[in-house]
Amino acid sequence: MASLIRNPLTAVVGAVLLTVPWIGVWSASADHALGTVPVVVVSGLAILGASFLLTWGAETAEKDVPRAFALAVLAVLAVAPEYAVDAYFAWTAGANAGTEAGREAANLAVANMTGANRILIGLGWSGIALFSIREARRNDEVRYIDREGSLRDAVPLDRDIATEIFFLFSATVYAFFVPFGGGINAVDSVVLVGLYVVYIGIIIRGDVAHEEQVGVPAYFQRRRRSMRILIVLGLFAYSGVLIFTAVEPFAHGLEELGLRVGIPPFFMLQWIAPLASESPELIVTAYLVNKARSTAAFNALISSKLNQWTLLIGTLVVVYSIALGRYGPLAFDQKQAAEIWLTAAQSFFAIAVLVNFRISVREAVTLLTLFLSQVVAEFVFIRTLPTAQATTYSYWLLIGFTVLYLLLGFALFARRHAALREVLRLTATNVRRGHVHERSDD
Description:
Layout: H1 2-6, H2 8-27, H3 36-61, H4 67-78, H5 80-95, H6 100-138, E1 154-156, H7 162-175, H8 186-203, H9 215-221, H10 225-260, H11 265-290, H12 294-324, H13 334-354, E2 358-360, H14 361-384, H15 387-415, H16 417-441
Antiparallel strand pairs: 1-2
Helix pairs in contact: 2-3, 3-4, 3-9, 3-10, 3-11, 4-12, 5-6, 5-10, 5-12, 6-11, 6-12, 6-13, 6-14, 7-8, 7-12, 7-13, 7-16, 8-12, 10-11, 11-12, 13-15, 14-15, 15-16
C-alpha cells in the first residue's frame, strides 16, 4: 500500500481525478444548472488539477528543450484564459465601434489587461518571494540569503533569467509611450509582438541543461524520447483545454459572488476576473517553490508577465480590427491611459528589484503593500463617492502611484546600475551563444 502511494502515477491519477467532475459538467453543458458555489468549487478543483499536470509537463520537457522555453510554453498555457477574456472585450469593441457599448468594451479590454499584469507582480512576484523565504527557513534545500536586520532575508535567483529581465525591461519602457498613440495601434502590435518573437527565438536556441527531477517528472523523463514527447504534448493539451474551459465559469462565479456583497461590476472585471485567470500560474509557481525551484518559479512568473505585456497587448488591436472589418486602433479613455502608465511604472520598479538577481522580504512586502493600497483606495473611492468624482479621484490616484513607483525604480537603478549592465552583458552572451549553435547546426 505504501509503495502504491509513493508511486508517481498515483499523483498523476489524483490530479486527473480533480478534473473529472468539471469534465462531466462541461461536456454535459450543465454548469448553468448548478448553483454559483458548486460551479466555483468544481471549476476551481479542475484548475488546481490542471495546474499540476501542466507543471509536470513543463518539467518533463526540460530534458529535451531549454528550460526557459519549456517555462515560456507553460506560461502561455497557464494564462490562456486571460487572452480569451481580453479578446472577447476587444472583439465586442470592434463589433460595436462608435457606440457606448463599444467604448465600454474597449476600456474593459485595457482594464482587464492592466489588472492581470499588476496582479502578477503585486500578488504573484511578492507572494512567491515571501513563500520562498518561508519554505527556505523550513527546508534546507531551498536557497536563501540570511542577512541581519529587519526583513533583509532574500531569495537568490540564477543569472539565467537575465534575458527575461532584459526583454521585460524593453517592453516596459516602450509601454509608457502606448497611450500617446491614440490607442493601441499597429506600430504597438509590431513592436511588442516582435519583442516576444525575438525573445522566443533566443531562448529556444539555448542549452538543454535540466535540473535533476524527482517524483512525476523524473518518472516521465526515464521514458524513451518518443514516449516523453507524447506525454508532454498530452499533458499540455489536456491541462490547456481544462484551464481554458474552467477559468471563465470560475471567474464568472466569483464575479457573481462579489456582486452579491456589493462589489461594483467594473471593479470585478478589472480585478476579480483577472485574479481567477491568473490562478493557474500562481498555483504552478507555488508548486515549483515547494520543490526548491525558486528560480524556475520566477522564470515562469517573468515569462508570464512578458507574454502578457507584449503578446497580449499586441494582439488586442488585431482582434479589434478583425471585428471592425478594417484596420483601426483600439482607443481607450484617459483613465485607462493612466492604468497603462501605472502598470508600466509598477513593472519598472519590479525589474529594478530583480535586476541584481535577488528579492528581499522588504522588497516583496513593498510590492505587495503598494499594490494592495492602490486597489483598496480606489475601491473606497468607487464605493463612497459619486461616479464622476470617483473617476477623477481614481485618475489622480493612479498618476500618484505611477510617480511613486517611478521614483522608487529610479532610486534602485541608481544604486544597481552595475547590475543592469550585467543583465545586458548576459543577454548579449545568450544571443551570441544562440548564433554559434545555429552555425554549428548548419
